Amino acid sequence: MEFSAKQIAELVGGTVEGNAEAKINTFCKIEEGREGAISFLSNPKYTHYLYDTKSSVVLVNADLKLERPVTATLIRVANAYESVAKLLQLYESMKPKKSGLDPLAFISPTAKLGAGCYVGAFAYIGEGVEIGEGCQIYPNVYIGDGVKLGTGCILYPNACIYHGCRIGNHVIMHSGSVVGADGFGFAPSAEGYDKIPQIGIVTIEDNVEIGANTCIDRSTMGSTYVRKGVKLDNLVQIAHNTDIGANTVMSSQVGVAGSTKVGEWCMFGGQVGISGHITIGDKVFLGAQSGVPSSVESNQKLIGTPPQNQVSFFKQVALMRRLPEMQKTILQLQKEIEELKKTINTNE
Predict the structure, then answer these.
(1) Catalytic residues, which ones?
(2) What DSSP string runs through 84-107?
């Protein structure tokens, strides 16, 4: 489909600067721009690309000041990143959706599917499953007995939901993600480790997105919770009996140990490790590779192991780089002190 710069501006509430009739039919990164594409600029590091990009239209922040003329048509908006996200969502929604039930899928006679669902080949839908309207169940998906799935969910190939789990509306599960596998519960014994049955479930609330190969374990009793709006990257591990607060986001390889409560609107960088049986407050930012052994209060930006204030952490890192030089200085001072001692002792 093709749109004009004027039409795009109306969609995102922006103002056109240049040719309002410039046509676009695709998206492109600003540094790889081409005719007929729309790009965006939100990171100042990429500003220099604006003056040479071949894209026909570029979304920019309203307060951007030009250093020289540009050939592309600009659409000035309050937030270029949010605006391009809105356009990409619109573009995605316009794609044709698959429909129908593939004859190679297994659907239990006791399962209930809402109107407009798609179920791909070799998908398995167990006994007593309830699936809401408009869900997209791709090939090789496994949905265990008694699972309840809301409306508008997308389960990509090889996603797996174990028995009894509860999934809200508009949840996306990417390939290889697993919801409801057993929590890591074992009791030491003289012979080794006795498995503790995990008889609880996982509850995923609305508008959650779960990345590829991410695992969310079922609880020992009760439920593991992932609250509304949570976004989990690929390769994230959420252990049993945890409670992940609304609108929290986690980057790849984050691990949250059992029975931990994470607050709302938190942001965890890659490879953050959270100890078990602790509480993380609301709006906590943890930098990549932070290790958290104890509870953290709300509204903090931390990094490191154990986590600390970002300014303090980076000062320490800068100081560590000078340690070899400082060691030489200390050794030289020690040598001079010893020489002074010898001189003083001789004079006495």
Answers:
(1) 240
(2) HHHHHHHHHHTSPPP-EE-TTSEE
Buried b (16+ CB within 10 A) or exposed e, 151-165: bbbbbbbbbbbbbbb
Find the DSSP H helices in 29-110: 80-93
Look up tokens 């030489």; give the residue: 328
Cα distance between residue 174 and residue 268, in whole Å: 20
For residue 112, the cross-strand partners are: 130
* Spatial CA neighbour of 229 closest among 177, 178, 264, 255: 264
Residue 46, phi then psi, degrees to nearest 5: -100, 5
- Distance, CA of 262 to CA of 285 (rounded, Å): 11
pLDDT in tens, 60-114: 999 999 999 999 999 999 999 999 999 998 888 888 888 899 999 999 999 999 9
**Contact yes or no for 146/163 (Cβ under 8 A):** yes
